[in-house]
Design brief:
Layout: E1 2-11, H1 18-36, E2 39-44, E3 51-60, H2 63-79, E4 84-92
Antiparallel strand pairs: 1-3, 1-4, 2-3
Length: about 90
């Protein structure tokens, strides 16, 4: 069993309230979950307006597949983000 863990730190400069931030994060999380069948959630910086931490996890039999999915998740987040990705951490367990 292979577990792939992805942690992404985001900067959202256009966000002006926590409510607006949560709408953006919820949209990203829902889109990624539906498209790639991964477990994903906001995992940090919950009370900061313009910062967000999102983590995604996949369980599979092959580490190569886990890496491919995590790369696609990052690409999807970057493609639909009105902001920038500050940091990306991936782990294969």
């Amino acid at each position: 069993m292979i577990i792939g863990l992805l942690q992404v730190e985001l900067f959202l400069p256009s966000v002006r309230s926590l409510k607006h931030k949560r709408q953006i994060i919820k949209s990203i999380v829902t889109r990624v979950r539906n498209k790639f069948n991964v477990s994903i959630s906001e995992t940090g910086n919950n009370d900061l307006w313009q910062r967000a931490s999102i983590s995604a996890c996949i369980v599979t039999n092959e580490s190569k597949y886990a890496n491919q999915v995590m790369e696609k998740v990052v690409a999807e987040i970057e493609r639909n983000l009105d902001g920038q990705v500050l940091d990306i951490n991936t782990s294969i367990l």
